[in-house]
Amino acid sequence: MNVDQxxxxxxxxxxxxVQQIPAPTFSETRRxxxxxxxxxxxGLEDVAVDTAGNVYARLKSEGSQAPLVISAHxxxxxxxxxxxxxxxxxxxxxAPGIGDNSLGVAGLFGLLWAIRQERANLQRDIWxxxxxxxxxxxxxxxxxxxxxxxxxxxxxxxxxxxxxxxxVYHRGLGVKRYRIGIETQxxxxxxxxGRPSAVHELGKLISxxxxxxxxxxxxxxxxxxVIGGGTTVNTIAAQAYLExxxxxxxxxxxVELDAQVQALVKSAERPGVRVVGTVIGERPVGExxxxxxxxxxxxxxxxxxxxxxxLSIGSTDANIPLSRGLPAISIGLTNGGGAHTAAExxxxxxxxxxxxxxxxxxxxxxxxxxxxxxxxYI
Length: 378
Prior knowledge:
The chain has helices at residues 5-19, 29-41, 98-118, 141-150, 198-210, 251-267, 293-304, 319-323, 351-367; strands at 45-49, 55-59, 65-73, 87-88, 92-94, 124-131, 156-161, 167-172, 174-183, 187-188, 220-229, 235-236, 239-248, 274-283, 286-287, 310-314, 328-332, 336-337, 345-347. By secondary structure, it is α+β, with helices and mostly antiparallel strands.
């Protein structure tokens, strides 16, 4: 399906409008309210916000087939006080969160506008969802609520990301996250010298974690992303903590790595040193086959719009339906870079291909009658 330049400009304007509203994980309320009002202005049915904070709207069809759920996450990694200034260049827009995931949210509207322009004869309802809690410690809480609501009653789940055009994420990457805290008596750096320092003990633990040998196949990673603790420069620290991210393509490798981490945490305890590891996030694994009809159609639609398709594994909202045996993929709308940094940007020219492949994919899924659940073919 071809998308005209006027529609592309509308989508970019919507992306900027969304991006200008701060939406750190767990603080998406203002952005959600904006999207809700926009859904209502479009005349969509059953517009509502659930207890998790997700915003729903239904594009009703003439058919009675199982609905298609299309979602994009509202939240961003940036704190509320972040400077959200926009810089527009000839073929790119630069701004924190513009690609991840303001453009994804705007893509929900771009899809709606494209379908209406095409006047497609839909045989299944489309539920558009702007969900919360995808980033960081949100632990996919919004998508968990979405899948709890629709479950296997949905034909499939389609997750929109602003960037990564050409990627078809049909495998969910396993993730486990810990906050590991260390507590000691503490004291004065001179008077009480010799007492264990929580900061020193934390440094030793990080060093031991970094020496864990990780397999290259399946790809497995370990990252200490946050550290904190202590009081003043002349105080023996009584507390310190780190936040740890573990990932693997295969459940068994993640389980093995997790066991090694737990053993290190336990061994770090000694008289006067208390170490506690608390799970703060867990993203389950799951996948659908490369020849599943949802994947097949996604690839065909990308290639029809001149984009080379790449089947991928990732940590996205698709993890939740995939982990429950439900058909789901995540796809991107354009290219860009600098994600999760102040230098984030999107390229505007490829958006025509991205919106075109999205609209064509949804048209295929909604104008033919067979269900995708359990691998049924369209």
